[in-house]
Amino acid sequence: MKVVLRTFASLGLLCLLILILTPSNARAATKPASSTTISAGSYIITVNLSQDPPYTDQPFTVSIMPQNKTIQLSGKIIMEPGSGTDGTNLPTDLTAAGDGTLQATVHIPVRGAWNIAIQLAGPQGTGQASIPVVVGAPGAMPPWVAWTIGASPLVLIAFWVWHQHRYRRKLLSTPISA
Q: SS3 of 8, please?
């Protein structure tokens, strides 16, 4: 019975460690963090962001999918600083990613309010749209460091429980002298 319990405990601990150590973006697969449907001229498009909110000094992906997958679009996005944000316009060309999807990787160096200005060109003419985003500052420390610090007391508790278990077994195995 003890062997079965130890096996289940070991498997449970292994599963927990895998879950904790797997990055959250890998667990989320390819689902976008944010999705917005807007009109850019005569084109109805869905704009997907890989991070919501995006963080400074961390590149994130902007994907643009037209509702009509048969049209071939081209264009660019311009990251425009919003009011109160000290920055300059950051233009980036959109590249084809298949199925009519356009994609760009953007790097924003300043936190604050920004607008993603989308400029598209296609068979129905040109179109423009804008989406507001707020770029945040990255965390003070990486998540794995925070988890290591936060979980460190568990090692001490496990050692204490193990020591108490050994002490109790030693007491029970020692004969009592009268």
A: helix
Using CA atoms, how far apart are residues 152 and 178, in angstroms rounded to an integer? Answer: 44
pTM of the model: 0.66
Whether the predicted pLDDT of 23 surpasses 70: no
pLDDT of residue 73: 92
Q: Please name the residues in contact with 173: beta carbons below 8 A apart, sequence gap of 6 or more.
A: none
Q: Helix count (H) and strand count (E) of the chain?
A: 3, 9
- Contacts for 88 with CB less than 8 Å, ≥ 6 apart: 81
Torsion region of 112: left, alpha or beta (phi above 0 gives left; psi -120 to 50 gives alpha): left
Q: Which residue ranges form the domains of the chain, and what is each CATH number?
A: 30-135 (2.60.40.1930)
